[in-house]
Design a protein that fits this description.
The chain is an alpha+beta fold and 261 residues long. Helix content is 30%, strand content 21%. The protein has 7 helices and 13 strands. The strands form 4 sheets. Strands 9-10-11-12-8-13 form a 6-stranded antiparallel β-sheet. A hairpin with a 2-residue loop joins strand 11 and strand 12.
Length: 261
């Protein structure tokens, strides 16, 4: 008797993979919002795990995981490194308790000896911008495929798929912002939306044009926006705040704005 074959949503290969893909990683606290078996093949799953691990262990996501006391897949504390700092969550998974090693005058400032309170400065990324970009694209397409099938069928995601499968590794721009995307809609609905809210996670989208489908990923105090369809960064101009990554895109935007004056 033949095994039931399912087509991978990224590479279109038919497969009978038994692994379950968590759309939002387990390491961010998600247990239930998943793809069906085979909708992500083992090959793509292995590719994704490489940049996912870097995004979660070497960026601002590490601080939020540690702050929320989230367990890893193996039941351990969140642990990683951002620049000079070694960061780990509380051994008993207590929320808001984080162990940080490597503090110095550059990253620990304004210490008050009476209150014993100071400010820790942590870089947003540690050579992990490209990994975070792919991480956002991965969650975006998987969530829209699962919860917004009409939207998924409406657009062409070929450029995204080639990027995620390393057929084209040219950098893909995203925005790190303090505000959620205006006039956007939740991707998951009802129960899944409620479950993600409980782990401080929101997934939202906004249809702008045939070339721009914005995905907004909120986790704790982090909010990031990316265009799922292509590397076009014209949409960035509509935002009056936020930091553009990878950094070299900032110069491109500055040069284009100068020539348009």
């Amino acid at each position: 008797m033949n095994n039931y074959m399912v087509k991978c949503i990224i590479c279109d290969s038919e497969n009978d993979s038994k692994s379950i893909e968590h759309i939002v990683p387990e390491s961010l606290g998600n247990e239930y919002y998943v793809l069906k078996k085979g909708e992500l093949c083992d090959r793509c799953n292995n590719l994704f795990s490489k940049f996912e691990n870097k995004a979660l262990a070497n960026s601002v996501f590490l601080m939020e995981r540690a702050r929320f006391g989230v367990k890893t897949k193996k039941g351990k504390t969140a642990k990683g490194r951002i620049d000079k700092l070694e960061i780990e969550g509380n051994k008993n998974f207590k929320k808001s308790y984080v162990e940080i090693k490597g503090l110095d005058k550059e990253n620990f400032k304004n210490y008050n000896h009476k209150t014993k309170v100071g400010q820790v400065y942590v870089k947003t990324f540690d050579k992990s911008e490209s990994a975070v970009s792919k991480f956002l694209l991965m969650i975006g397409i998987e969530s829209i495929y699962t919860s917004r099938r009409k939207v998924y069928n409406k657009y062409n995601f070929e450029e995204l798929k080639k990027h995620l499968t390393n057929q084209n590794n040219e950098d893909w721009i995203f925005l790190n912002t303090l505000k959620s995307l205006n006039d956007s809609k939740s991707i998951p609905t009802f129960l899944e939306k409620h479950r993600l809210n409980k782990i401080n996670c929101k997934l939202r989208f906004k249809e702008v044009s045939d070339e721009i489908l914005l995905f907004n990923f909120d986790y704790g105090g982090i909010s990031m926006v990316i265009n799922l369809l292509n590397r076009n960064f014209e949409w960035i101009k509509d935002f009056d705040e936020g930091i553009i990554y990878p950094e070299h895109f900032r110069k491109k935007l500055e040069s284009t704005s100068d020539t348009s004056k």
